[in-house]
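Entry, Tuesday afternoon. Goal for today is a structural model of the target with flavin-adenine dinucleotide bound, before we commit to ordering more compound. Inputs were pasted exactly as handed over by J.K., no edits. I checked the ligand SMILES twice against the vendor sheet because last time a stereocentre got dropped in transcription.
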Amino acid sequence: MRVVVVGGGVIGLLTAMECVRAGAQVELVDQAGIPSRLATSHDRHRVVRALHRGDPVLTRAAVRAHAGWLEVERRLGTRFYHQVGALTAMPDERVPAELELLRRAGAAAQELPAGELAARFPRVRFPAGRSAVFEPAAGAVLADRMLAALAGWLRGVPGVRLHPGRRATRVGPAGGVRLDGGSELSGDRVVVAAGPWSRELLPAALGADLTLYRQTMLSYSPIPSRDAWAGTPAIPAFGTPHGAWLMPPVADTPVRLSAASACREVPELTDRVPPDHWRNQLVDQFRELLVDFDPAAVLGASDGYYLADRAGGGPVLARLGDGAVWAYAACGGMSFKFAPLVARALADRALGRPPHRTGLAPVDQPRELAPTVRPSGGAR
Ligand SMILES: Cc1cc2nc3c(=O)[nH]c(=O)nc-3n(C[C@H](O)[C@H](O)[C@H](O)COP(=O)(O)OP(=O)(O)OC[C@H]3O[C@@H](n4cnc5c(N)ncnc54)[C@H](O)[C@@H]3O)c2cc1C
């Protein structure tokens, strides 16, 4: 079987790997390089943690995704998953229920009461009345390193052809993918994993159900020194009303700082330079949260994009027509961590095998759509 994969982000590359392991031939195309620096996935690091507060289904899926990342790391023979732990701050009274959620999902976790939080993390000013749940096994995937290793692995496999710098302009219902310049790739199956650009290739009815988000993130130098930050876990939530979060310096990465409040709905994908307003609101938040925060240590700010289901806020998997085309139409804001599960299920679907269950309802129960297509247009 020949599978054409559109998109060289984490989902496209991992799906290609799964297809190859199942014996399929793969053509993988990306409008940029492979791996693609344009991809939302292409960043220094991404957090992988189990706790999804109040949500046993997502928490269980994230525990399986953690095992999935260890497996990908083993297959690629490259270290990119650093288990630095994750610290989720919340009102004291919420802690017992979240610990129980993690325990039932099979994830190790411990409570850090407010006093201990302050003692162990003196550089962080957690809001009053906050304790935290600490997950020691959680961590950060060095995303750019992992994507490069994955692309290298694919490059070395007979039966895989990579097409960097080629833009898909149309996906036909029977497995044909037209590229800019007019040539066409044909496959028995097509997987569209085009991240925030997906709407350009998919039926308008599906695109109308998706919301595009743009999020600003700061890169911050680990001052006063990298050593001073040693042992700092990922902080997916400081427990603030603005939803501030932090990715610690891992290996040679900077600190990354952002907040739910720096994420906004936008009509289209344009540039990645954050307007001052968005950058400044993050600087103001972290001035309060980090004891020795220095605005001069902000190395830069950039914006990333992702699509999410307008109704549920999460990912969308869709089958177009009779199943020759599968589209991971929207990834949601936390799909990176689930990528090993999503890719395996996507490959199963494309290859006509019984799909592995991911535990993510939108992936396990894909939408079914008529195979209408439309020509590509719009911004890149
Ligand atoms: C600021 C920010 C922080 C995040 N942090 C986390 C986190 O800590 N943990 C987590 O789990 N998730 C996180 N996410 C979400 C996560 O990064 C995304 O869900 C995930 O990376 C999406 O991967 P993807 O492969 O679906 O899309 P992408 O990585 O965007 O890949 C899509 C690829 O398709 C290519 N493409 C598009 N259109 C075409 C075309 N027509 N022809 C050819 N190629 C095309 C693009 O060039 C691109 O390479 C974050 C997102 C943002 C924006």
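The first strand starts at residue 2 and ends at 6.
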